[in-house]
Amino acid sequence: MVSRPSVKNAPRLPVNVMSREFIENKFRYYRWMHEEAPVCQGGLSVMRVFFLAGYDDCANALNDPRLVRNRTTATGGGRFLFPLPKRLMPMLSSMITSDDPAHRRQRTLVSKAFTPKALGKLSERIETLTHELIDEAERHNTVDLLSAYSLPIPVTVIREMLGIDEADMPRFRAGLRALSEGFSGWTLLRTLLVDMPRTVDLVEELIERKRSVPGDDILTGLIQAEAAGDKLSHEELVSMSILLIIAGYETTVHLITNAVVTLLQHPEQFEALKADGTLLDAAVEEILRYAGPVHGTKPNYAMEDIEIRGVRIPKGAPVVPILGAANRDPAVFTNPEVFDIRRPPKKQLGFGHGPHHCLGAALARMETRIAIKTLIERCPNLRLAVPAGELKLQRLPLWHRYERLPVILHPEG
Ligand code: HEM
Predict the structure, then answer these.
(1) Segment 125-151 mean pLDDT
(2) For residues 327 and 335, what is the distance between their CA atoms, to the nearest angstrom?
(3) Ligand 1 atom 26: residue of nearest CA
(4) Which residue in 4, 69, 154, 336 has the fewest CB atoms around it within 10 Å?
């Protein structure tokens, strides 16, 4: 009789992913996972989560129909662990936490805005914007590149794509601030009770305005599609708008920042890129692999008991593929801890995988490519204004985001 290897319980991750210890040393813990526990359990705030580290395990999980985004489908319980005010739903649930057919219907509607043809028109605008921002930054020479350059590029682009007036941005920024400041203690309360409802109000106000004065923008397109074919409910429209604002606001800023940090920390690679512009696309992919800003997906809930690498994951449990770990899987990337823009091409998972693969990936790549190209052209001798060890990461689990990036644009000047 052939004995079946016994199904084991997942080992515990020996650190809290919310802690500074994890955030500062995450790559060391990822290595531990690859060596010791490619499927492990850890606590993410109040929830016990199964983490996946292996490249194939992450990619397979993101395509596995037994793992769903809508918690209610898998558990029969509420959408969230705790009942939350209805007003917050559009902030917390959207197509990224939905499954087909609702997910596909919504994604199809919005994806028109992200086709290569639609994006092609934006490249000139992004290029102009990057030059304007450098003009402004050069007035100071020593600047926080994150707030002076990396942030305004994607924020302006998504604002213009959605048709939001510049004058409304400070109010949006206040509403979204909480998302980048973390969720703990009083911040969490303020986020839930003040900032999130305020952001929902703002988006509803914006939608009303677009209904009466349509523009040439994504939001108007979504409203009209809704009117024509009853395709997006009002709630879906609000949550889609918020998802796009958050995605546009929270991610690319950190890819541009991480790109600059990584290149400055690897001067020989930076020189190679400066000498040969054709390496730019490969450099952006390698930065996404080596220092992408998003390290985990939304939770995927098990519809039934499942087994991954001999570990039992019970029905209803949340599973989070750690993209940042998958991108350093030694079984897939030779010397994964080496940053090498000439690495043979292999799809990195920094934009996720499967049905929820990042809708804005082409836009984010284009913004980052142009941002780096302009920076190289305009500030070829750029350097950090503080020792690299003083750069501080934001205290957000499963993200890789710096708080600031002080640089000197022209050290000689
Ligand atoms: C989904 C990463 C920029 C829109 C995702 C996912 C990842 C990701 C990992 C999958 C999450 C999951 O499976 O739970 C990134 C990174 C970006 C970036 C690293 C920048 C460097 C953008 C931009 C937009 C965008 C600029 C649009 C303006 C979206 C949307 C989804 C998504 C709408 C949900 C797709 C769905 O559920 O079908 N992104 N993203 N992203 N991203 Fe991005």
Answers:
(1) 97
(2) 11
(3) 248
(4) 4
Encoded amino acid at 76, one letter: G
| Residue bearing the CA closest to ligand 1, atom 34 | 96
Contact of 394 with 295, CB cutoff 8 Å: no
Secondary structure letter of residue 296 according to DSSP: B
> What is the ipTM, given to two decimal places?
0.98
Count each helix (H run) and each strand (E run) in the chain, helices first.
19, 10
Q: How far is the CA of 244 from the centre of ligand 1 (A)?
A: 9
- Nearest ligand 1 atom, CA 321: 13
pTM for this model (two decimals): 0.94
For ligand 1, the distance from its centroid to the CA atom of residue 359, given in whole angstroms, is 6
Pocket of ligand 1 (CB under 6 A): 95-96, 107, 154, 158, 243-244, 247-248, 251-252, 255, 292-294, 297-298, 323, 350-352, 356, 358-360, 363-364
Buried/exposed 51-84: b ≥16 CB within 10 Å, e otherwise: bbbbbebbbbbbebebbbbebeebbeeeeeeeeb
Q: How far is the CA of 185 from the centre of ligand 1 (A)?
A: 28
Give distance in angstroms: CA of 251 to centre of ligand 1: 8
The residue whose CA is least distant from atom 21 of ligand 1 is 252
In angstroms, the CA 285 to CA 308 distance is 28
Domains in the chain: ranges and CATH: 20-408 (1.10.630.10)
Q: pLDDT per residue over 303-349, tens digit each?
A: 999 999 999 999 999 999 999 999 999 999 999 999 999 999 899 99
